[in-house]
Amino acid sequence: MPKTSAATPPLLRRVNASKLLGVLSTAGVMTGTGLIEATGLTRATVHAVCNDLIGMGWVLELDPVRDDTSVGRPSRRFEFNSGAGFVLGIDVGAAKTTVVVANLRGETLAKAGRSFAAVKEPGERTDLVDEAVVDAMLAAEVTDDEVIAAGVGVAAPVDRSGSILADDEFWRRFDAGLTARLSKLHGWPALLENDANLAVLGEHWRGEAQGVDDLVVLLAGERFGSGLMDSGRLLHGSRGGAGEMVYLKLVEGVGDTHGIARIAREGGAAAIADPAVQTVLRELAGGEPVTAEMVFAAAAQGDQVAIDVLDVVGQRTARVVATLGILFNPELVVIGGAVAEAAKALLPSIEELLATFTSTPPKVAVSSLGDTIVSVGAVRHALNYVEQNALDLTLTARRF
């Protein structure tokens, strides 16, 4: 049997501090006794580590509550200092960017965005992301010195080290030096991750998948993308390609990576292009391009053309969910993205078809996070960095 070295005092201190921060960051005010029960640490260790964390700014000690009926010294009371620093969640999507500023409990303080509609060069996209960052920080009254880290989501494979898969020409276009530039301009680390992976973190933390550790999130807007979690751990693959959906080109009845929004939009547009087709969609569009939302709205009104379009969408989506269920055997598949709320109408047909495609169909839900799903996950990604590196960070924001 190989030898294992005993844990050193610095390592024990780090582990114990991580335990205490993990409990305090999700709880309210706690006494020393409460922390002992929650962590299993001794009273002496709890008080010693809390003293360290108070000195570093991570924890606040509140005035004791005196009770005339109690005997002896009142219990010490501790609270996580959620204003000791701040994090950013940045979603760099195909059409727009969204930036969220949050405190260390993940509570949103401000939000800003920019459209990429007029962007022609990658550098312009980077400039707009930075403008949104500046706007959000100004709205939150947070300075660069107070920001500990930013999570950044992009629609490209990202490996465990935070690098975009650049072997493919298509993915190389997403690597415009965004995170390096943000770090240079602002001084805080910008942590790159795939957008679907961040969607998984967001759903697991604040969405429909709380408490579910075997999970797939299917981003289903213009194109399908998926993020995978197995036993509570994100799956990246050897070069960040886990969950990429190019394999759908080989799946009968699917044939490409086009998502729910695109298929619905294109189906609706094809219908109104034929003057002989009678459909509510023509009135809803009013001469403007058909959107996926219009197709869902027309179907809700009983329009047969829109219903037929969504029938195709539902069949395709069921096949996509089935392949993910067969390959990864998740407990739950969450459909996310801008069309998630409308996609609730597809759930009955998807669930019915799933049972015909696989003997182990996963449960299916739609995200309640809407178009914030990636930015929420990006905040969680940044908070994970904070928690993992807490003892090595110097806090400059001491907002007690």
Automatic annotation (TrEMBL):
<dbReference type="InterPro" id="IPR043129">
    <property type="entry name" value="ATPase_NBD"/>
</dbReference>
<dbReference type="InterPro" id="IPR036388">
    <property type="entry name" value="WH-like_DNA-bd_sf"/>
</dbReference>
<protein>
    <submittedName>
        <fullName>Putative NBD/HSP70 family sugar kinase</fullName>
    </submittedName>
</protein>
<keyword id="KW-0418">Kinase</keyword>
<dbReference type="InterPro" id="IPR000600">
    <property type="entry name" value="ROK"/>
</dbReference>
<comment type="similarity">
    <text>Belongs to the ROK (NagC/XylR) family.</text>
</comment>
<dbReference type="InterPro" id="IPR036390">
    <property type="entry name" value="WH_DNA-bd_sf"/>
</dbReference>
<keyword id="KW-0808">Transferase</keyword>
<dbReference type="Pfam" id="PF00480">
    <property type="entry name" value="ROK"/>
</dbReference>
<dbReference type="GO" id="GO:0016301">
    <property type="term" value="F:kinase activity"/>
</dbReference>
